[in-house]
Design a protein that fits this description.
The chain has about 325 residues and is an alpha/beta fold. About 35% of the residues lie in helices and about 25% in strands. Strands 1-7-6-4-5 form a five-stranded mixed sheet, with helices on both faces. A four-stranded mixed sheet has the order 8-13-12-11, with helices on both faces. The chain binds oxa(dethia)-CoA. The site of oxa(dethia)-CoA has 20 residues, from α2, α6 and α8.
Length: about 325
């Protein structure tokens, strides 16, 4: 009998502190009007200085565990998609394991930038289908505010902090992940296209890297924009094909929340009406690996996505990486 990975619980957490566009006007040469028009972002959340990504992930995971009605000891594996881990090592996933008391779980981080959560889902799906694991916690979480250059208006207005979590469990019912597709193209791995140059083995921390602000995000926004608009519809269509479905079957599209103009372009290119496209980039900005799972959790809790609905999720990020999935809730 075919085995499926059902999503039995979701959760999300964003910090309380809100940073509005108007507050940013006082920090950098920008305007609320520019940010709204070019990105759709109105405000974003900022984690406290003493918070790390695992602190957000733990809060999101607890909600997902509650919704799934499982014991943390039932969790076999924890995957955390993040590019802002608590430390380079040990993994953020191990801190989450401790925080939620999932003592029987294997735990590791996954680096696929904004595609981290959907990469994690794909992996979890395969692990569950293999029969070796039954219950997997997948988290996408980031604290971007600590790696932003707050003097670079081209990036600091775009990102925010947050985390989302999903519990996947094996089932014989044809639900959960119906199809999943991930890909990458290292030809676009230029760290200045989208990335953080220093802090790794290529450019370890030094006084120079700090003076030159190389521990912060660099991005050539316009190029990344074009790539997103091209890659996400292709990836979404691929996941639909794999599932043997068409856009007309889809109840809700959840695209990566980076920019309202990209979101609209992806929906339009796929031919999905605007009312079926989930948007929360206005509230949170781009939370990288967390955007799609925070959105899915909100969609479920707001009943925009109900049991039995078909949800199409698609994302892209640094690397380049991309991923898409069709889920029956
Ligand atoms: O998770 C994936 C990662 N990232 C993305 O998906 C982001 C993709 N890119 C984007 O969202 C857009 O390219 C941006 C929002 C970053 C920029 O929008 P754009 O329409 O591509 O603007 P642009 O970079 O072409 O810049 C237009 C103008 C420039 O001024 P000049 O050269 O025309 O005088 C910029 O200097 O806007 C200026 N500008 C700003 N002005 C006010 C750039 N950032 C700002 C700002 N406030 N924050």
């Amino acid at each position: 009998m075919a085995r499926y990975a059902a999503i039995t619980g979701t959760g999300s957490y964003v910090p309380d502190k809100i940073l509005t566009n108007f507050a940013l006007e006082k920090m950098v040469n920008t305007s609320d009007e520019w940010i709204r028009q070019r990105t759709g972002i109105v405000e974003r959340r900022i984690a406290d200085e003493d918070m790390a990504t695992s602190d957000l992930g733990i809060r999101a995971a607890r909600q997902a565990i509650k919704m799934a009605e499982i014991d943390p000891l039932d969790i076999d594996m924890i995957i955390v998609g993040t590019v802002t881990p608590d430390a380079l090592f040990p993994s953020t996933a191990c801190y989450v394991q401790k925080g939620i008391g999932a003592k029987k779980a294997a735990a590791f981080d996954l680096s696929a930038a904004c595609a981290g959560f959907i990469y994690g889902l794909d992996l979890a799906d395969g692990m569950i289908k293999s029969g070796r694991y039954d219950t997997i916690l997948v988290i996408g979480g980031e604290i971007f505010n600590k790696i932003l250059d707050w003097s670079d208006r081209g990036t600091c207005v775009l990102f925010g902090d947050g985390a989302g979590a999903a519990i996947l469990q094996g089932t014989d019912e044809p639900k959960g992940i119906l199809s999943s597709y991930i890909g990458s193209d290292g030809d676009y791995s230029d760290v200045n296209l989208l990335g953080m140059p220093a802090g790794g083995s290529r450019m370890p921390p030094s006084h120079e890297t700090i003076d030159q602000k190389l521990h912060t995000i660099k991005m050539r926004g316009r190029e990344v924009f074009k790539l997103g608009v091209r890659i996400m519809p292709e990836a979404a269509q691929h996941a639909l094909n794999l599932a043997g479905l068409t856009v007309d079957d889809i109840d809700l599209l959840i695209p990566h929340q980076a920019n309202m103009r990209i979101i609209e372009a992806v929906g339009d290119r796929l031919g999905i009406p605007r009312e079926k496209v989930f948007v929360n980039v206005d509230k949170y900005g781009n939370t990288s690996a967390a955007t799609t799972i925070i959105a899915l959790d909100e969609a479920i809790r707001e009943e925009r996505a109900k049991p039995g609905d078909l949800v199409l999720m698609v994302t892209f990020g640094a690397g380049l990486t991309w991923g898409s999935t069709v889920i029956r809730l």
